[in-house]
Amino acid sequence: MKIGVLNGPNLNLLGIREPEVYGRKSLKDIEADLRGLAKELGASIEFAQHNGEGELIDRVHAWRGAVGGALVNAGAYSHSSLALRDALVGTSIPFVEVHLSNIYAREPERRHSMLSSAAVGVVCGFGAASYELGLRAMVAHLAKNA
């Protein structure tokens, strides 16, 4: 099974951007950890990070029929992008929404997600481990529904 991992704006700055909020691991560190876990779980994984909303949507479209599911950390677009939600729903890619921080304990504008109502589930607040928990959940979901 192939799983896409989609990261949105500013996540390329992980490790240096507000480490007290997002942690000290870089996106490359997180990707390396996920590659190892995916191998253990019998999955393959493809990563993408884009700062632009249109590029994120294009990637989702490209993944249609190519991935069985996805982890999505859309960054700030999680709170504003109906277009990204529509792309995920329109391509029928099941996804787990992932956030490093607990969005529900942050500023009011970050407490609502445009994506979560379409997600299989949401994992937030566990730092880089949120991705690992999300990957485990997506693999289990896909295996159950195979």
Largest sheet: 5 strands, parallel
Strand content: 15-25%
Largest sheet: spatial strand order: 2-1-3-4-5
Measure the end-to-end span: 10 Å
Q: From the alpha carbons, calculate the radius of gyration and give it in angstroms.
A: 14 Å
SSE string, helix = H, strand = E? EHHEHEHEEH
Number of strands: 5
- Overall shape: globular
**Estimated structural class:** alpha/beta
Report low-confidence residues grouped into runs of 5 or more. none
Output mean pLDDT.
95
Can you count the helices? Answer: 5
Q: How helical, in percent, are the residues?
A: 25-40%
Protein described:
This protein is α/β, with parallel strands linked by helices. The protein is built from 5 helices and 5 strands; from the N terminus they run βααβαβαββα. It has a 5-stranded parallel beta sheet, sandwiched between helices. The mean pLDDT is 95.
Pick out its properties.
5 strands; 18% strand; 5 helices
What's the structural blueprint in terms of helices and strands?
Elements: E1 2-7, H1 19-22, H2 27-41, E2 44-49, H3 53-63, E3 69-73, H4 82-90, E4 95-99, E5 121-124, H5 129-144
Parallel strand pairs: 1-2, 1-3, 3-4, 4-5
